[in-house]
Structure formats: structure tokens, C-alpha cells
Amino acid sequence: MLEDRMYDLFVIGGGINGCGIARDAVGRGLSVYLCEKDDLAQGTSSASTKLIHGGLRYLEHYEFRLVRESLIEREVLLRNAPHIIWPLRFVLPHKKDMRPAWLLRLGLFLYDHLGGRKLLPATSNVDLRTAEAGEPLLDIYKKGFEYSDCWVDDARFVVLNALDAQRLGAKIETRHKCLSAVRTGDHWTLRVEHQKDGTIKEVKAKALINASGPWVQDVIEECGLKFSNDGIRLVRGSHIIVPKLYDHDKCYIFQNADGRIFFSIPYEQDFTLIGTTDQDHKGDVNGVEISQEEIEYLCHSAEQYLKKKITPKDVVWSYSGVRPLYDDGASAAQEATRDYVLKVHGDAQTAPVLNIFGGKITTYRKLSEAVLEKMRPFFPKMGGSWTATTILPGGDFEVTEVKVKIAKLCEDYRYLDTAWAQRLLRLYGTRAWTMLAQSVTKEDLGEDFGATLSEAEVRFLINEEWAASAEDILWRRTKLGLHMAAQQKENLEKAVTRILEEKTNAA
User: Fold this and answer.
1) Cα 384 to Cα 166, 289, 369, 375, 437, distances in angstroms
2) Is the pLDDT assigned to residue 230 strictly greater than 80?
3) What percent of the residues of the chain are helix, what percent strand, and what percent coil, each to the nearest 5?
4) What is the three-state SS of 296-353?
5) ω into residue 276 within 30 of 0, thus cis?
6) Paired sense of beta strands 251-255 and 232-243, if any
7) In the chain, what is the straight-line distance between the N-terminal and C-terminal CA atoms, in Å?
8) What is the rounded CA–CA span in Å between residue 341 and residue 130?
9) Residue 485: pLDDT above 90?
10) What is the Cα–Cα distance from 384 to 371, expressed in whole angstroms?
11) Helix (H, G, I), strand (E, B) or coil at 482
């Protein structure tokens, strides 16, 4: 099979960088084809700590440009996607044998002022002996600081970028793996294999973007792109989920004796997320899992701060991802730069390839802009940057209107309670009205799989958001896998299979 058109860009990788680049490029007038060998965000982009943040600890490594760019982006992204990004307050307890209080104050002063903060409240001091935030902590912690950052539903963030790219004309194909790339003068010929039925087709493109994350070196080698001497450092970050450790909605950032930091974050109403680790990763980057050593490390770290003890037996779920960091020669994993590095090979007579090393979810939009600027010599007529002021699908309301929108959703669909409406608005924003449009009663939504997941929502995710398995739905499009029993998950798997068969037969 041969695609009947020549694309401007062929993007490998359906993570945050690949989807962000596809969206930005097609909005500038370029034609784009993106392939992802698995589901969108199935790799690193769904395994983050789920924060849009400046990276407070990066200040210690003098990465002031990265921190400033990240802090500016924090508010840009909050405005662009107020349904899946929202403000959080973080409590940093002062520990006497760690960083001195004056250093923490200085760092937080810079954090408040480097990025031109407007929407988020400033840093404040906290008396942990009297404040609500002090109650879950050991009594040795007397004072601390409280500052702002933002939460993001990382996997949905990727999907929204893919949706907008598709809306603007990009072709997005999941479960399609790029097998080879052959440069033929001024263009690339790429062989792409459908991972379900094994069919192979050829796609032609003028430029190739390798945004495959931790697979970047694999793609370079497997596709014959052997022009790069740049190295990648694979660093595994793992997280554990435990039953809720405290009732308030604040997060904690804790300092560890080994110089690392980790977070404790309220998660999915009933749970607490603890992470992350920083450990060099060796071996396969597919199906990465937390090690027993990492679980014990996080449990031991948490007990240095929290009254409620947690053990490995308390862990109800865990996830791990491999960060594809640029190898800058740092001696320790936590010291390796989180900045991105872009390497272009090609000139006016030969089709270019751009390899992406590193990056973080907070700066994906700036990375996308930087990639397109690297491509400008090859596409001089393309448009300028545009994504800073353009909302993502479902985010067409103000940051301050979330509660109003939840109330409106309850008013328009009387069978919803507040918790259900909040879940839907936080996942879909104003697209929730589209999903529920054909319903008047709860029964109109079809089969009830539990945890407020309905057949109507499942069909919406399959038809509109590339979901192709129960796993896609339970762990990436939603996090309802934490709230559903084994039988409910089995019923969902059967329903997904049936709906996909109906879709195939209809086609």
C-alpha cells in the first residue's frame, strides 16, 4: 500500500512531544502524518508525576533558563486547558539537617518572580504546629513554606493535542509502527506496519521528526538513521499509589537524605500518590515496572515525614516511566538535565531528520515551537507560532469558572451528582456536553460498568479518542481502574471488544 500524497512532516511518536509538534505544525499550514506504535501516551507521557511546574530543584543545578521557561509556560497552559490543569498548593517542611531555611526562602523567592506569575498565589510561611497541613506530619516539623504549582492529567493532555492536530488536518494513526526510513534525495520513504493486522504501507514525507522518547536511539538504529553520535540517558521514575493518607487537598514536597526530592499528592479522591524515584534504567524500555527496591525506597522516605506509616503491602497501584534525558555526563541520575536538545541532520538538497532528546511535559509547547523553527529553512512559507493563546479541546472557559461549569453540567443533566459531573468536566471540559447530548436519563447512557463509567462514555472514547482496549480507557483516558472491581473490568473488556467489532463491520 502507498499513501497517495507527499506529507511535509512525518512524526514518529504519539507522546506529548510528538502530538504537540503535529498540532503546532499543521496549524502553521504544514501537512502532517503521525504514527505511534502503541496507544497515545502509553509510554513516558502517562508516567509523569502529573505536574505542570517550574522545577524548584532545578534551581540548585543553575538551570535558570529552563525554570523561567517552565514557570511562564505554567500559566500559559493553565489558561489553555483549565479542565485538565488546575492549581495546587505545595507544602515544603523545613528539615534542620537538610537545606537551610534561608536557602529555601531564596529559592522560593526566585520561583515566585522568575516567570512573571499572575494567576497563582505567592509563597507563604506555614506554622506546621497549628496549620492543617501540619497535622499529618511528624511533630519534629515546626515550620515550612507553601508555594504554587499545577496538576495535569498527563495522558489526556496528549490526547487533546492529538485531537486538535486531527481537527486541523493532521493524520494520526495509533498502533502503527515505523519499520524503516529511506532518504531519497529531497524526501523520505517510510514503511509503516499496522500492529493489529500486520499490513504494511509506504508513506512519503519531506522531513522526519523522531519524537519517540526513550525509543529515540532505537528508531535511529532500526530505521537506518545512523547519523547521530548524541547519547541518551534513560532514567526511570516510579510512583506508588496508596489509600488516602490525609484529608486536606494540599500536596507536599519532601527532601530526602540522598539529595533527591519526592512528592505526596492527593490522587483520585481516595488515594495518595507518592513519587518519584530517579534511577538509571538499563534494558528494555517496553513495559517498564517499578522495582521492589523503589517501592521500599518510597515507603521508607515517606515515613521520615508522615505520621501514618506505609509499607509495600499498602500499595494499591504503581507506575513507572523512562525519561529520555540527554546524556550530559552528569554523575547522578537526579542531576542529569531535564532540558531538551534538538539535533537536525540534512540540508537544502537532502531531506532532514530531527531527533529529540530530553524534554519535560511542562515545556512541550516550547519544544514544539523550537522544532518548527529548526524546520523553517526547509519550509520557509510556513506560518508563525500560534499555540500560546489557543485553547485545547474542551478548555473554552476561564480558569475561575470550573465550579460554575460543574454546576451547569448537573443542571443540564439532572441524573448527574456533583462528583460525577466533576469527573466528567475534569476529563472532557465542555466536550462533556457533546458526550452526553443524546441522554435525558441515566438509562440513556447504556450499560453501567461501575464507578460512573457508562457505555456512552466508552463509545465516545473509542470513536473520538483512539481508545482500543479496556486498558486504554481505565488507565490513560480515565483512572477508573483504581475504582473498579475485577468483574467490572472484565465486563468492560467484553464491551470494548463488541463495540470495536461493530465499528469494524460498519466500516
Assistant:
1) 19, 41, 9, 12, 36
2) no
3) 35, 25, 35
4) HHHHHHHCCCECCCCCHHHCCEEEEEEEEEECCCCCCHHHCCCCEEEEEEEECCEEEE
5) yes
6) unpaired
7) 19
8) 46
9) yes
10) 12
11) helix
Helix (H) or strand (E) holding 500: helix 486-506
Q: How far is C-alpha 44 from the chain's CA centre?
A: 8
Cα–Cα distance list, 261 to 105, 126, 137, 302, 450 (Å): 17, 19, 16, 11, 37
In this prediction, residue 3 has a pLDDT band, given cuts at 50, 70 and 90, of confident
Give the C-alpha separation, 398 to 376, whole Å.
34
| Residue 477 DSSP one-character state | I
Alpha carbon distance 205, 224 (integer Å): 16
User: For residue 48, which of 22, 11, 85, 91 has the smallest C-alpha distance?
Assistant: 85
At residue 256, what is the residue type? N
Q: Are strands 143-152 and 453-454 parallel, antiparallel or unpaired?
A: unpaired
| pLDDT value, residue 292 | 96
Q: Which grid cell is 100?
A: 537551610
How far is 463 from 456, CA to CA, in rounded Å?
A: 10
Is residue 96 scored above 90 in pLDDT?
no
Closest CA to 323 of 344, 340, 310: 340
Predicted local confidence at residue 8, as pLDDT: 97
